[in-house]
Design goal:
The protein has three domains: 4-129, Methylthiotransferase, N-terminal domain (Rossmann fold, 3-Layer(aba) Sandwich); 152-382, pyruvate-formate lyase- activating enzyme; 388-443, OB fold (Dihydrolipoamide Acetyltransferase, E2P) (Beta Barrel). The protein has 14 helices and 21 strands. The strands form six sheets. It has a six-stranded parallel β-sheet, with helices on both faces. It has a five-stranded mixed barrel with strand order 17-18-19-21-20. The protein is globular. Helix content is 36%, strand content 23%. With 444 residues, it is an alpha/beta fold. Bound molecules: S-adenosyl-L-homocysteine (SAH), iron/sulfur cluster and FE3-S4 cluster.
Length: 444
């Protein structure tokens, strides 16, 4: 193992926050075994690509990247190239055969085996491990914070997903849903606070179904939120993602009760049409969704609500599309991530339905959705003009070293002239101007 000490690794991450959090777990596992993290693709012995399969486009990006890695390997034949994450899990050995480039393939539940797998590669053999686990949560691993601003960090609280939304590859790429030991979550939050971090985001595909018990105590998601919120009033708390079917009044009340639980909920709706929601296997109706929004707005004044929307799912008609636009207006989303439906192999939709909305129609509907969301986001920003928000300073603004960048509880980005405070501190900022993506203000 002493040989590892001279071996450097570089991780490149694609996909969602959970993947970024996983890369920090991988970095921790490898560093503990003597490997050295490198922050340069040219000064490394091992390149690990942590991949995403959510849409075809995500996989295309990885394939393009692998072409580039081929040229690196030509120059440096000793370079080890490994594929991690969801695409590794989904495609198993296929890419190893196709690309004739990869030395290692490891799925999301195999990261503890990476040191051994790398040793296998070192001794001249290809290494593959894509076995999914029913109980791996990496609870005891203390992630190495990569690309950290020293202020905000992710804490993974559960893995996998069993909702089987008909379009979605995640249950196949990430396996069974399992929750992480609550005590280890609290320990990680406390340790981050002591290190100076002031914001943690609890991560899972459906955090509302978090459940953990150790025989004598049971911890549900609202209970976990309370426990983390009680770590310190100066530690801000966010979470993602909430499945609308499981967002309970209890969770909404806990968010309202703790000033340090951020007033921002990401609640992916996917579609505004009941026919499409049913076909997507989302298990709620537009009426139930809008009722949840009403509860959030009445119990948590000033709460921001963001969403995800998929357009052009199988059998989506103009009327279904109109209902999505209509729901967006009714919900008055502050922000939305919008996607064209992309058929994923092995999903229920791929097996049973026809991807029958043409590329042109998907494109046009997406444009209409984006245009409407720009209006809604702009209206949301304009409502903030003249308001004062408590902002957590994250660092210097990218545009100017005379300005700070931070976020308010609603997760909106604010830029304002520097003060004596430092990143990681809170201050009140009054909004003077708004652009499409940023609030521009001054400390008050
Ligand atoms: N667990 C989260 C979402 C995770 S994936 C939830 O249930 O809300 C993030 C987003 O990608 C989804 O909300 C969905 O909008 C989008 N997405 C997932 N599969 C997709 C597909 N096949 N085509 C297009 N978008 C997809
Ligand atoms: Fe995918 Fe649905 Fe699970 Fe979210 S809840 S990860 S959309 S299957
Ligand atoms: Fe992508 Fe896997 Fe996340 S498919 S969105 S990296 S869970």
């Amino acid at each position: 193992m002493t040989e590892n000490k001279t071996r450097k690794f570089y991780i490149e991450t694609y996909g969602c926050q959970m993947n970024f959090s996983d890369s920090e777990i991988v970095a921790s596992i490898l560093t503990a075994e003597g490997f050295q993290p490198s922050n340069s693709l040219v000064d490394t012995d091992i390149v690990l690509l942590n991949t995403c399969s959510i849409r075809e486009h995500a996989e295309d990006r990885v394939r393009k990247r692998l072409h580039y890695f081929r040229s690196l390997k030509k120059k440096n034949p000793g370079l080890t190239i490994g594929l991690l994450g969801c695409m590794a899990e989904r495609t198993k050995t296929a890419l190893m055969e196709e690309e004739q480039l990869l030395d290692l393939i490891a799925g999301p539940d195999s990261y503890r085996h990476l040191p051994g797998l790398l040793e296998q590669v070192h001794s001249g053999k290809k290494a593959i491990d894509t076995i999914l686990s029913a109980d791996e949560t990496y609870a005891d691993i203390n992630p190495v914070r990569l690309d950290s601003n020293g202020v905000s960090a992710f804490i993974s609280i559960m893995r996998g997903c069993e909702n089987f939304c008909s379009y979605c590859v995640v249950p196949y790429a990430r396996g069974q849903e399992r929750s992480r030991d609550a005590e280890s979550v609290i320990r990680e939050a406390k340790s981050l606070f002591i290190q100076g971090f002031r914001e943690v985001t609890l991560l899972g595909q459906n955090v509302n179904s978090y459940h953990w018990s150790n025989g004598n105590s049971e911890v549900s998601f609202p209970k976990l939120l309370e426990l983390v919120a009680q770590v310190n009033p100066l530690l801000r708390l966010r979470f993602a993602t909430s499945h609308p079917k499981d967002l309970s009044l209890e969770v909404i009340r806990v968010i309202a009760a703790y000033p340090n639980i951020c007033k921002a909920i990401h609640l992916p709706v996917q579609s505004g049409s009941n026919k499409i929601l049913d076909k997507m296997n989302r298990k709620y109706t537009r009426e139930e969704y809008l009722e949840k929004i009403r509860s959030v707005r009445s119990l948590i004044p000033g709460c921001a609500i963001s969403t995800d929307i998929i357009t052009g799912f199988c059998d989506e008609t103009e009327e279904d599309h109109r209902q999505t636009l209509d729901l967006m207006k009714a919900a008055a989303f502050d922000y939305a991530f919008t996607f064209k439906y992309s058929e994923r192999p092995k999903t229920i939709a791929a097996e049973k339905f026809t991807d029958n909305v043409t590329a042109e129609v998907k494109e046009r509907r997406l444009r209409e959705i984006i245009t409407l969301q720009q209006e809604l986001s702009s209206a949301s920003n304009h409502r903030d003009l003249g308001e004062t928000f408590e902002v957590l300073i994250e660092g210097e603004s990218k545009r100017s070293d005379k300005q700070y960048f931070g976020r308010n509880s609603q997760n909106k980005a604010l830029v304002f002239p520097k003060t004596n405070q430092k990143p990681g501190e809170y201050l009140n900022v009054k909004v003077k101007r708004v652009t499409s993506a940023t609030l521009i203000g001054e400390a008050v």
